[in-house]
């Protein structure tokens, strides 16, 4: 559905900063999160987890636990089904281990008991005999030919003979003659970078309440980014029919990609089916760290050539991503995104997805892109330093624009990178003075965005108000944006619309809330659903007036006669039409289902000022500005929130956050005391500049904004630190001990 | 005939070609033809691919019309967070 340019629209609701519909419930504690749901006769579930990074399960004896008073069910992998598809089998085996435990924290068995104390006691009675195997947690180590093998036979057809069995897939992208490109360069810089695995750090741990009968009919309430996906996965893993499992998504306390799969839901359902009672299962924070999905850690080589006047002649990146103990698909996105901001004659990216004895990675905002672009943007910055070039002018000189053959294959059409860079260049931040031990860095960022399967119903109530029913959990303000777009199209106030997120049996299939897709795709479907309802309303009014349907138009929330032969009739408001709907043909609703495409790629530029304490190596963020092409910003507060939130998560990734594994392969810091995410006192105000370059693939010009903002901070901060200290850091996080050591070795 | 650009690591599975040509007027026909003409591509196509049509990325959309005037690029299946 293309941008509506036939009649240039003056927005009345879209673009305003209306009150968020979930705000009061959230700040007063009224909102119902995953752990807040209860049911009569409910049992409490607990999971036994592996203390080993890699071990064979020699025997598993649950009899003593089953015999404990108050225990109603114990389940192992034997209680789950056998999906034919490897994709589902891997998810099952991640939920409950089969034959081997593959990482510290891997679930082995679960109990359901009358209270948490009995459940905890029962876990101690489960006897597991392990044969400990050698393990590997580092990506470069895992790629060596003699590395411990995490799983055998998982490589796809892209993997070359002789590579480690831990390599599961390989990708290559690019175009042009690299050798000739590097030969044209006046300066070539080659660097190797490493980034740590980080966690999405959502406030709400995974939680669910499951009720499943032996007849395969069940209910599941859970915090998730996609109830339909949960239903599909659970049905496969439990061997039940999707129609018989109704999944309802709770309010969600953050997701960022981390709640796009299942970890505990199939286990809770299996326990409930065995016990014959509802089972609540809630992860502790330690379990979230050890056994949900962080992002990948990476090792990346980058080589870039540049002329003295700042033209990039060639770029190459080799990206190695470990995604935990199962095959993953992330390096292909880093490989495609790495050089996306540049117009290059010669470029090549090579990527390897690798298994290690760590938890299975899951998406985290723009999965795979931040670390790739960190490495490339660090080398671009270093070249600018070496050649005494302005980093922003250099990026402008090389920026991808309409007609550029992208580094990942297609030719770009309308993109907003140059406009974003120009906005950054003229912003006062870029020319503000800096003090001692301070440095300024910048970086470009990129993400693809997509649309996907979407289904929306819009119902006209008898008082003229409107209910929108959609199927995507609201992780970033989508309910407000959807209501705003419905109100805009119908010509009624925002307050007259309420959007709810429904369960899997009340609406057609919806893809997960990911890929920055919801405001774009659900908004598009909502506009179409509103147009369908308007068509019905105009038809009803035409009958009342006794004129042709075509002679009735919809303006400002009213049906009006239009054209020379329509006659004179006073406008009928939506409330007047709704009040007599019973008499004119029954309920009025609009519905639309679509697999939305045309989301449009997104670019951003971040500028950051840092100050590094020469005594401690601590980095302070002094000033931060985000520039991003958002398409039409439906609710600017939320758009700014997405831009600020991504920047903050990137600050944590750059400076402090990391999964730390010991020699024994066990996670050393599974808690927020030792895994340090930024808090308010670590941060300055994050300024935002929204560029509204309409997306031609959406009727209002909307573009996804949720992911691009986490991409630039890693490089922007590293570049700022480099300019503050004279030290080029090549490992993230740049925690104080690491930075202090590097500074002392200058 | 439409011309399809393959990403680098797929080329060895398609006789070393960066571009392949198939008879197709929509995405479904294109993917079917690719699987038939280059069976080694079939596992990747089955796992999932995206297609870029004149710079716009599609994840599914079998019946999207294509012609020899379009730029068509095969890409990995898009995911997000």
Description:
The complex is a heterodimer of chains A (746) and B (81). With 746 residues, chain A is of the alpha+beta class. Among the domains of chain A are: 34-134 and 204-291, Aldehyde Oxidoreductase, domain 3, CATH 3.90.1170.50; 416-449 and 600-746, Aldehyde oxidase/xanthine dehydrogenase, molybdopterin binding domain (Aldehyde Oxidoreductase, domain 4), CATH 3.30.365; 452-594, 2-Layer Sandwich (Aldehyde Oxidoreductase, domain 4), CATH 3.30.365.10. Chain A contains 21 helices and 27 strands. The longest helix of chain A is centred in the last third of the chain and has 28 residues, at 518-545. Chain B has 81 residues and is of the alpha+beta class. In chain B, strand 3 and strand 4 (56-58) form a beta hairpin. The longest helix of chain B has 11 residues, at 27-37. The relative contact order of chain B is 0.25. At the A-B interface, strand 7 and helix 10 of A face helix 2, strand 4 and strand 5 of B. Chain B: It comes from Pseudohalocynthiibacter aestuariivivens. Chain B: This is MoaD/ThiS family protein. Chain B: Pfam families: ThiS.
Provide a concise account of the structure shown:
Chain A contains 21 helices and 27 strands. By secondary structure, chain A is an alpha+beta fold. Chain B has a single domain (2-76), classed as Ubiquitin-like (UB roll).
